[in-house]
Amino acid sequence: MSRKANIAFSKLAAPTKGTVVILAGEDRQLGELALQIAPQALYDRAFKAADFSGKAMKTVEILAPHDSDLDRIVVVGAGKREAMKAHDWLRLGGTAMAKTGKGGATVALDLPSGVSAEDAAAFAQGMMLRAYEFDAYKTRKKDDDDNGEETGKSVDVKIAVADASAAKKAFAALEAVGEGVLLARDLVNEPANILGPVEFAERASQMKSLGVEIEVLDAKDMKKLGMGAFLGVAQGSTRPPRIVVMKWNGGKKGEKPVAFIGKGVVFDTGGISIKPSAGMEDMKGDMGGAAAVTGLMHALAARKAKANVIGIIGLVENMPDADAQRPGDIVTSMSGQTIEVINTDAEGRLILCDMLWYCNDRFKPAFMVNLATLTGAILVALGHHHAGLFSNDDTLAGRLSAAGDVTEEKVWRMPLGKEYDKMIDSKFADMKNTGGRFAGSITAAQFLKRFVGETPWAHLDVAGTAMSSPQTEINRSWGSGFGVRLLDELVRGHYEK
Ligand code: BES
Ligand code: ZN
Ligand code: MN
């Protein structure tokens, strides 16, 4: 079990016990409620001592205030009202969560300018995301971390706000999305001995209970479909591969679906082109794309999105073995195009090419977006702060960029072009699976592009953002769940009626 927060909303009233979190606006402005909790003089003194101005995300703690039964008052700065964007409310919630001890807290969301139901819901989602901790395998209490709480325990939070029922309603959708993010984080954090292709497929299948249609393809099915590129990667592992097709039919009957495809390499040793051992443990996260697609499908189903959505994840382990494929092997993809495997460590594109072809062929989607921890080169180019975006469609690319700005799951568009495409021509087959030292992320994208036809398509290279990404107000986990909020925003903003 990972640590989560239990969040409930209630009417605005001054809490009298435990830990209470309140907001202060710019120039240390407090809401009326704050003054029912403690006198202005107490705040003035604490603010002065802590040199607190009310700037957003700054905090002050007042311990055991005199003449009250409260344990602590935590004041969180909310800064300039006009400057607060939706995402900043998430960050505020995260900041508040970080200051909440094992006993939980009551948050009194009040400001002189008021706090809307939407702001309160975003704040709650921020708390939820920050509370998450993957401590499933810790059997002992940690005494020396932030709060010293027991593992697997959840934190109870009550958020008091002016219109509690409106906030609760607004939070329902955001909570669904938050759950999707946490599911994606769990999947990425889980070690590969526990989460193999079969186990991952089982986890995804649990979404049946949300009304998601699930189909699981095994190696035999893939063989029948002619997925020679996918199966070439799988043949080095004793654990059999799976493809999971998830369908959420929340839109109009007969309306074209949108499709999301995820790379789910549960562990990437590199295969015969084996990786160096230093840091190889991180390759348990090489299924970050599949985790995001799974989390997204959970989010969309749990909030009953009014859209027809297909999610496809390819689950496989890349191992060196007597049966593993070799450099120089030539495989035939489902499309009929042949591929010379120059490097068995460029396995992500080999599984994606068959999934993209299959998805396009079977579902004729309005667009396809694939997510993959595809190249180390994208880390060299963009670090941990943007995912690489490659697309054959300016409208789709623009919408993804805009969704990135709103959610702060940022993407940066990279170029495609025939000069790069030429770099993957092969002497012996239609193409090879690596394009040489330079432009490694782009040649990987060019490879995928050969399998999408005319369908609007975008590839997100999330090698730098899905795991060991920056620690923020709303994420302290190694697996970030990157992509779930981004793609939920894309669907919500453009594909729901
Ligand atoms: N899974 C890796 C990419 C990766 C690297 C993800 C670092 C996360 C962090 C991928 O399968 C891979 O090995 N790519 C190779 C491609 C190369 C052989 C052309 C790479 O990036 O080195
Ligand atoms: Zn990989
Ligand atoms: Mn690899």
- Average pLDDT, rounded to a whole number, is 96
Cα separation of the termini = 37 Å
| Morphology call | elongated
Spatially, the strands of the biggest sheet line up as: 7-8-10-9-13-17-14-15
Tell me the major beta sheet.
8 strands, mixed
Stretches where pLDDT is under 50 for at least 5 consecutive residues are: none
Strand content: 15-25%
Topology:
Elements: E1 5-11, E2 18-25, H1 32-37, H2 40-50, E3 59-63, E4 70-79, H3 86-98, E5 105-109, H4 117-131, E6 155-161, H5 164-189, H6 197-205, E7 213-217, H7 219-225, H8 228-234, E8 242-249, E9 258-268, H9 288-302, E10 308-318, E11 330-332, E12 338-340, H10 348-363, E13 368-372, H11 377-382, E14 387-391, H12 394-407, E15 411-413, H13 418-422, E16 431-432, H14 440-449, E17 457-461, H15 484-494
Parallel strand pairs: 1-6, 2-4, 2-5, 5-6, 9-10, 9-13, 12-16, 13-17, 14-15
Antiparallel strand pairs: 3-4, 7-8, 8-10, 11-12, 14-17
Helix pairs in contact: 3-4, 4-5, 5-9, 8-10, 9-15, 10-14, 12-15
Please characterize this protein's 3D structure.
It is built from 15 helices and 17 strands. It is of the alpha/beta class and 497 residues long. The strands form three sheets. Strands 7-8-10-9-13-17-14-15 form an eight-stranded mixed beta sheet, with helices on both faces. Helix 4 (117-131) packs parallel to helix 5. The protein is elongated and about 80 Å long. The two termini are 37 Å apart. It binds ligand BES, zinc ion (ZN) and manganese (II) ion.
